[in-house]
Design a protein that fits this description.
2 domains, 12 helices, Rossmann fold, N-(1-d-carboxylethyl)-l-norvaline Dehydrogenase, domain 2, 8 strands, alpha/beta, binds NADPH dihydro-nicotinamide-adenine-dinucleotide phosphate
Length: about 290
């Protein structure tokens, strides 16, 4: 056990975080807007606080996990004069810009600030596959890393406090793109009564095989060499109208296939028809 800790926010994730800290043997004070949620954690040995101020004054390390950073700012505003000499670890989902603002605000109040992006669902916390990106005050990270390791692996990605949110959003972007595409595939299959289970058995190995090409895409992007012998943008450009027509004919929302058609039109017009899909990473930049 290291320093006394507070966890602000006991939703699904905050509860899992507090529980992991208790399991690791730490002294943990917990606060939640809806006080009843402290019950199960108190049963595990946590100390309940009836206000953020009470939680903060009992702690050196303050972990916040609320719905949004607006809520974090609101809660911290109420305890600004108590934060000097303490460390805030904010594990609420947010933007790089907002993390930088919160870090500057914390510095004005004499507090160290780390922003974090949790790559896990609550059930994975403290398990072998969970990890958290951290950015911001590196000294605070080094000091508290053994404590933060209770949640899973710790990945410090830089002194710019915005970087953890950037990594977090980048990984979630890949996930949402895949998940939305998968739901759209189910929607299309449903129009012909193909059972989702049957499609799932086909989708999982298919997507897995396609993901195996991601490292080659990464190499193309890092070296800025996009010529391909796999599948050219010209070929994809010619195929996408079939998707749009099939969605229309079957009565399914085309979602991002319209914008994809536009970006492929632009790619071909600008002379990138011979390049692979890795070229898109450079065309999406605005
Ligand atoms: P929950 O909805 O379970 O919990 C939300 C928390 O925010 C509760 O403690 C809630 O308090 C509090 N809250 C909401 N509004 C206010 C307010 N106005 N003032 C004070 N507190 C407020 O969400 P999760 O725990 O799942 O998520 C929390 C954060 O963790 C989010 O930013 C989420 O994106 C992130 N995250 C979640 C993951 C997940 O799989 N669940 C994965 C990775 C990140 P109350 O109990 O009183 O409503």
């Amino acid at each position: 056990p290291t320093v006394p800790l507070a966890v602000l926010g006991l939703g699904m994730m905050g509860t899992a975080l507090a529980s992991a800290l208790l399991q690791a043997g730490h002294q943990v004070t917990v606060w939640n807007r809806t006080a009843a949620k402290t019950g199960p954690l108190v049963a595990q040995g946590a100390l309940p606080a009836d206000s953020p101020a009470a939680a903060v004054s009992a702690s050196k390390l303050i972990i916040a996990c609320l719905l949004t950073n607006d809520h974090v700012q609101e809660v911290l505003d109420g305890v600004g004069d108590q934060l000097a000499g303490r460390t805030i670890v904010n594990l609420t989902n947010g933007t790089p810009a907002r993390a930088r603002e919160l870090a500057a605000w914390a510095a004005e109040h004499g507090a160290s600030y780390l922003d974090g992006g949790i790559m896990a669902v609550p059930q994975m916390i403290a398990g072998p596959h969970a990890y958290v990106f951290y950015s911001g005050d590196e000294r605070a990270f080094r000091t508290h890393q053994p404590t933060l390791a209770a949640f899973g692996d710790t990945k410090f990605v830089g002194a710019d406090p915005g970087l953890a949110a950037l990594y977090d959003i980048a990984l979630l972007t890949g996930m949402y793109g895949m998940t939305v595409g998968v739901m759209q595939a189910f929607a299309l299959a449903r129009t012909e009564n193909i059972p989702a289970r049957e499609l799932s058995e086909l989708l999982v190995p298919w997507i897995g095989a396609m993901l195996a090409g991601v490292p080659a895409d990464a190499e193309a992007i890092d070296s800025d060499q996009h010529l391909t012998d796999v599948s050219s943008l010209a070929v994809n450009h010619a195929a996408i109208p079939n998707f749009l027509a099939a969605f229309r004919d079957q009565g399914v929302d085309p979602l991002f296939f319209g914008p994809l058609q536009e970006v492929l039109d632009r790619a071909v017009k600008e002379g990138y028809g011979g390049d692979g899909l890795s070229r898109l990473a450079t065309l999406f930049a605005r």
